UniProtKB/TrEMBL annotation:
The keyword Lyase does not apply. Residues 400-424 are annotated as: Disordered. Residues 403-416 have a biased composition (Basic and acidic residues). This is GAF domain-containing protein. Residues 246-312 form the OmpR/PhoB-type domain. Keywords: DNA-binding.
Length: 424
């Protein structure tokens, strides 16, 4: 095979290749993490299978729909790839309809935003939740063209039993990543999905060309956003740092809590909702809250904070939301890298405390499940993780016997165990 990224070389027998791939897949999945990948599995597929096993993807798994109805519509409307959907349709719809294929576009987390094409094919794809709003990240669904394309950030083709999930193995797909031409940031991928006829080099070259055309269109389209994006840093800080309009602003603790709640709810919150989130059962006058919001608007600028409902008028890049997104995408190491500590650790707002606790528990749970000794050590030796017995136990289990790091971890685990077992 001259190109390892192409699934089926000219002259190969598709039926025979499928039989060989199924045997290799069955052998590998039965062996688990210790399994070896036999030929004719391509290296790109073998690497993806190994990542899938490490992420604990089930070979019998099906995709989960994460966005539906209004949430999906709002998410698609604000996504940069919405600007090139007319181009995707112009270039691919005839090919998809004539070949009984599907055109699919996913975001950088492998979440499908659009799935269009032949009606019968869409109906069959719906049986495995290959539908808008479903999550097809490699870390969730294993090897598949859109998920693997964003995982490795390059065009990829996946043929039949190369898919890690057995329910997906009747399908063949090819996908190519699309980047922001100005920043290089990965925006998502464009995919063509259908039958075995997509296994040759032409479909891979086709989606690659479509992705390049989309990037060229985005480069031409330099329309500025009405309002620039806002950066909000809240992790490991008692007072949030907000960056907007080229200014860096340290917010008071109350304003920090308001900023977190508004960033968490971009659709906006009423005054009554904010009162409940901030004070819950405590008695607090709405007048006091309105005064705080007025001071916050004066600080940020009236163009950045709207009312009725209260909301940011610009997209907010918040550090705690980044950790949430990376965890949702299965990028545990990336989530840990972005986690600078608990969210507003001194905040006593009931809703901020709930967000803080959920985020911390989700991250530490993902670390324990992943069992990576370096990530566990990063948490255990952090200011907030030093007394976390569960993480120290997981670190001991993940560290090789005889390693000096294990002896230190065992000593700390014993100390914590004794402290927590001692009568109060």
């Amino acid at each position: 095979m001259t190109d390892p990224w192409v699934a089926l070389e000219p002259g190969a027998d598709p039926a025979e290749r499928v039989r060989m791939l199924r045997r290799a897949h069955a052998t590998f999945t039965a062996a688990g993490t210790a399994g070896t990948v036999a030929r004719p599995v391509r290296p790109v597929v073998a690497d993806s299978w190994r990542r899938s096993v490490r992420a604990r993807v089930s070979p019998e798994g099906t995709a989960r729909v994460e966005l539906a109805d209004g949430d999906l519509g709002a998410y698609r409307a604000q996504h940069p790839l919405a600007r090139v959907m007319p181009l995707f349709r112009e270039l691919m719809s005839t090919f998809a309809m004539d070949g009984e294929h599907l055109l699919a576009v996913c975001d950088a987390h492998g979440r499908l935003m659009w799935v269009e094409g032949h009606t019968g094919t869409r109906s069959r794809a719906g049986d495995m939740n290959f539908v808008p709003g479903a999550r097809w990240a490699e870390s969730v669904m294993g090897t598949n063209a859109p998920g693997t394309a964003v995982a490795v950030d390059r065009p990829v083709q996946v043929f039949a039993a190369e898919h890690f999930s057995r329910p997906v193995q009747p399908w063949t797909c090819a996908a190519a990543p699309v980047h922001d031409p100005h920043t290089g940031r990965l925006l998502g991928a464009v995919d063509i999905t259908g039958g075995d006829r997509l296994a040759g080099p032409m479909s891979l070259a086709f989606v690659q060309a479509v992705a390049r055309a989309a990037e060229a269109q985005l480069a031409i389209d330099r329309r500025p956003s009405p309002v620039e994006r806002v950066q909000l840093n809240t992790l490991g800080r008692d007072e949030a740092l907000l960056v907007a309009h080229g200014r860096r602003m340290r917010l008071s603790r109350r304003h920090s809590e308001l900023a977190v709640l508004l960033a968490r709810h971009p659709e906006g919150l009423t005054g009554d909702q904010l009162l409940l989130f901030l004070y819950e059962n405590e008695s607090m006058s709405p007048v006091t809250l309105r005064a705080e919001l007025s001071r916050l608007r004066s600080l940020l600028g009236a163009d950045l904070l709207a009312s009725r409902p209260y909301r940011f008028t610009a997209p907010v890049d918040a550090d705690f939301l980044l950790v949430e997104r990376r965890l949702a995408a299965g990028a545990v190491s990336g989530a840990m890298a972005a986690y600078a500590g608990p969210l507003l650790p001194l905040s006593q707002s009931p809703e901020v405390a709930r967000i803080r606790d959920r985020l911390g528990h989700a991250l530490r749970g993902a670390l324990v499940q992943r069992g990576d000794p370096q990530l566990l050590a990063d948490w255990a030796y952090s200011p907030w993780g030093g007394d976390d017995l569960d993480v120290w136990q997981a670190l001991v289990a993940a560290t090789p016997r005889g390693a000096p790091e294990r002896a230190a971890a065992e000593a700390r685990r014993r100390d914590l165990d004794e402290e927590q077992s001692a009568p109060s």
